[in-house]
Write a structure and sequence with these properties.
By secondary structure, the protein is α+β, with helices and mostly antiparallel strands. It has 25 helices and 20 strands. A six-stranded mixed barrel has the order 3-4-9-6-8-7. It has a six-stranded mixed β-barrel with strand order 13-14-18-15-17-16, surrounded by four helices. It has a four-stranded antiparallel beta sheet with strand order 2-10-1-11. A hairpin with a 5-residue loop joins strand 7 and strand 8. Helix 12 runs antiparallel to helix 13. The radius of gyration is 34 Å and the shape is elongated.
């Protein structure tokens, strides 16, 4: 049988193309997903936590205490090559050719080259005092001499100069657009007022691994209140803190990888069914000349195994190539995800080959069994399909219900728990149940649609309606192939729309202000509000008072005062930043814990100056996110703190593309630099736009992979229609002999394809829409409020395209049926 197997593979190589293509695409999808996941992880996360990627370990003080004295302790370890303390401060810098001064956030550069993470767009990093490298946001050039204003420990102003030696590339870091950043030597950072470091980055000695360094450092600092992580762990933590659940979209890639495997399995099963239907007589002759049922079955499974192995290997290579292409295209463009190179984890190609081969083998089991279940002589003549009420039909019904109901239950649990890992297997099980139940559910719907089509399309349409309902198995098989593709597409379209809407709402809630202008040394000039409001590109502004109040613990606490109506107009969202009304105090979580108050409690606040004899006032507590300040009504803050002055200005920019908004932030920076040099301008809108673009890029990658997966479904449509023509060869010949023309026969098959495809498209949209909403709810459940969005126009386009795709898929089978002579078809 080995010789027969090899001969079959050579003889039927052309017929195996469809099956091979389905496997290659599915495996390529899975491998590309895993490779892009790893590449995105090593580049996107590296951009967000770049300073930690090259470090073997990172030591962070959990109490905010100095770690200067621990540098020598760590340097003395055998597994440690170098230690870089992180010094940070802020200065005001005047750039040549620009009026006033702008805020710069200063970070120290490591002395050891192994811990220097900065990538240079131009020039070099500083090596001594009086030198500085800046980010592009600082809008300085190499060779510029910056006039720097800093403050010593006593608050005295210190003026100095620093020459720009290089421009640091911060592309991919969502924080890059917040404000300008400067990089100097540790000595220079201390001269500019940097306090003792609370974080140390550690480089490994030759031969020492990251985990060894982490373990040795943790042991050496055992008595200290510190957290010791590997560099990779600290980078992941930084990315999670920055991007939050935006990175949950990587889970979507794996979800569609799983779905692609299921789709491929169903398509492969259909493909082998087509192949075996075309070879029924050939296999029967093998049985007649002495081949046992077991030998024939082993031969069919051997074909499947060889086809699966070879196709999976090709698919794994294609997947890596696809990932490399995506990485090159994204990396070469001005994209927020600077995919650099390609990270191919060892498990990606191995998983692709194993999954592809296993799925192909399992998908061929049922067709192989069907090929040997019929007696040799019976296989030489047509065999009618078993009715739905037969034992196999009842088993499909029972199995479908057993898969559908628990699958729905798992999805419900996944949505409730906000866990996609629970919802995903539920989705797979329920959809397999839908596929099994389609045999009973699709034909009645097709029959109803056929009655309407019969009135419009004449004899071919009426015959098509009868054909579509006479053989429920064939109709369900054809519909299922397209149902898979439409469901997959609809699920993604609805899920992506909901993900975008939820993510945008989450970003607006997390960064409600577009631009924050804040003074460092006391109050801002009152005239600044009018100046900023009149700046081109600024749509709304809100004045924020800064003052001091005395809490119930007797300690003075800084507070901001806002006018609720004015502030609400300047904010993008008030979901997290709850604005207080009269008699209310918006208290951050950390302060609520200190004061031991909860939402709805009453809290007594006094004046910030005990000598002013300001009467104590009671407020209703509104607990807000910990990152926000204590907020009061502006008039009530003035009553408690008469010397309260303008401390911040919140600005809302006109809606436009991110590039134009960045220009507006630059314009605001220049205006503020002229009017109030000791002021910080934070362009939160740029960070929101950057993360928003990361979402777009990830969705674009998934969309590309999804398009490939839909091709698998279209292959399935062509396969099942081809099988339909093979099964009805004699029936079509008889129709031709009775007077049906070639054009009418083609029209008959076209009407049947439109009927089945239209019903499959509508059902697929309904089922896929439900899966999309469930997927979005489970992936983004931890975000809190989920915004569900159904893009109706895109849904309508999917129905139209799917129906046309079904029609086009019928062209080749219809031509084959029409070209066959009636006598030859009847005699077959």
């Amino acid at each position: 049988m080995r010789s027969v197997l090899l001969a079959q593979l050579r003889a039927h190589a052309a017929r195996l193309v469809a099956s091979t293509l389905a496997i290659v695409i599915a495996v390529g999808f899975v491998v590309a997903t895993l490779v892009l996941n790893a590449t995105a992880r090593s580049t996107v996360l590296a951009a967000v936590g770049a300073q930690y990627v090259g470090a073997a370990a990172v030591v962070t003080s959990t109490e905010g205490t100095s770690l200067v004295d621990d540098v020598d302790t760590l340097t003395g370890l055998d597994s440690v090559a170098a230690v870089a303390p992180s010094y940070e401060t802020s200065v005001q810098a005047g750039v040549p050719g620009r009026g006033g001064a702008q805020y710069l956030f200063v970070e120290s550069v490591a002395d050891d080259a192994a811990l220097r993470w900065q990538r240079m767009t131009e020039g070099t990093l500083p090596d001594g005092p009086g030198e500085v490298a800046v980010s592009e946001r600082a809008r300085a050039e190499v060779g510029d001499v910056l006039t720097v204003t800093s403050f010593d420990e006593t608050g005295a102003e210190i003026a100095s100069e620093a020459t720009v030696t290089g421009i640091v590339d911060l592309s991919g870091d969502p924080q890059a657009g917040l404000y300008g950043r400067a990089f100097v030597t540790p000595d220079q950072a201390r001269q500019w007022g940097a306090v003792d470091p609370v974080e140390l980055r550690v480089a490994a000695a030759p031969g020492a691994g990251d985990e060894q360094v982490r373990s040795d450092a943790a042991t050496a600092l055992g008595a200290r209140q510190v957290e010791v992580l590997t560099g990779a762990e600290r980078a992941d933590e930084a990315a999670a803190n920055m991007l939050g659940n935006a990175m949950a979209l990587t889970a979507v890639l794996l979800v569609f990888g799983t779905v692609a495997v299921v789709v491929a399995g169903l398509v492969i099963a259909n493909t082998f069914a087509v192949l075996l239907a075309q070879r029924t007589r050939e296999l029967a002759l093998l049985r007649c000349v002495g081949a046992t049922a077991r030998q024939v079955r082993r031969g069919v499974l051997g074909e499947a195994l060889v086809t699966g192995l070879v196709s999976s290997a090709i698919g794994a290579a294609a997947g890596i190539g696809l990932a490399a292409l995506v990485s090159a295209l994204v990396g070469g463009a001005e994209a927020p995800i600077p995919l650099a190179g390609l990270s191919v984890p060892w498990y990606a190609p191995l998983a692709g080959v194993l999954v592809g081969t296993l799925v192909t083998f399992l998908a061929a089991l049922a067709p192989a069994r069907a090929a040997t279940r019929v007696a040799p002589l019976a296989a030489l003549r047509p065999v009618d399909q078993a009715p739905l009420r037969s034992r196999p039909g009842v088993l499909r019904l029972v199995l479908g219900l057993l898969l559908l109901l628990p699958g729905i239950g798992l999805m419900a649990v996944g949505v409730t728990a906000g866990d996609v890992l629970i919802a995903l297997p539920g989705g797979v099980l329920s959809f397999l149940g839908v596929v099994l139940l389609a045999q009973r559910g699709v034909p009645p719907v097709v029959a109803a649609a056929g009655r309407l089509a019969g009135r419009l399309g004449g004899v071919p349409a009426r015959l098509a309606s009868g054909n579509a309902t006479r053989n429920p198995r064939r109709t369900a098989a054809t519909a299922t192939a397209l149902l898979i593709g439409v469901t997959l597409t609809s699920a993604f379209v609805v899920g992506a729309a909901s993900t975008r809407a939820t993510a945008q709402a989450g970003l607006a809630a997390e960064f409600p202000t577009d631009v924050v202008v804040e003074g460092f040394a006391g109050e801002l000039p009152a005239s600044l509000v009018g100046t900023l409001t009149g700046t081109e590109g600024v749509e709304r502004s809100a004045s924020v008072l800064a003052g001091s109040v005395t809490g119930p613990d007797g300690e003075p606490t800084g507070a901001f005062g806002v006018d609720r109506a004015e502030a609400a107009a300047a904010l993008r969202s008030t979901e997290d930043l709850v604005l207080p009304g009269a008699g209310e105090a918006s208290v951050p979580e950390w302060l609520a814990e200190v004061w031991d108050v909860g939402d709805g409690d009453r809290v007594a606040l006094g004046g910030g100056d005990p000598g002013a004899q300001v009467p104590v006032r009671e407020f209703t507590v509104r607990v807000i996110d910990a990152d926000n300040p204590l907020l009061l009504d502006a008039d009530e803050l003035r009553a408690l703190s008469p010397d309260a002055a303008l401390g911040q200005v919140w600005l809302r920019l006109a809606d436009s593309d991110p590039e134009r908004q960045l220009e507006v932030v630059d314009r605001i920076t220049d205006v503020v630099a002229e009017a109030s040099p000791e002021t910080q301008v934070t362009g939160l809108v740029t960070m929101r736009a950057e993360i928003d673009e990361i979402l777009d890029a990830l969705l674009l990658v998934v969309t590309g992979l999804l398009g490939v997966a839909v091709v698998i479904a279209l292959i399935g449509v062509g396969n099942t229609l081809a099988l339909s023509v093979v099964e009805r060869r004699q029936e079509n010949g008889l129709l031709r002999a009775l007077g049906l023309t070639r054009g009418q026969l083609r029209g008959l098959l076209a009407w049947e394809a439109v009927l089945v495809a239209g019903v499959a498209a509508v059902l697929g949209v309904l089922i896929g829409g439900a899966y999309g909403l469930i997927g979005a709810a489970s992936v983004l459940g931890e975000l809190g409020t989920i915004v569900l969005d159904v893009p109706w126009v895109q849904i309508a386009v999917i129905v139209a395209v799917a129906t046309v795709a079904g029609l086009l898929a019928s062209v080749l089978p219809a031509r084959r049926a029409a070209r066959t002579a009636p006598v030859a078809a009847i005699a077959a």
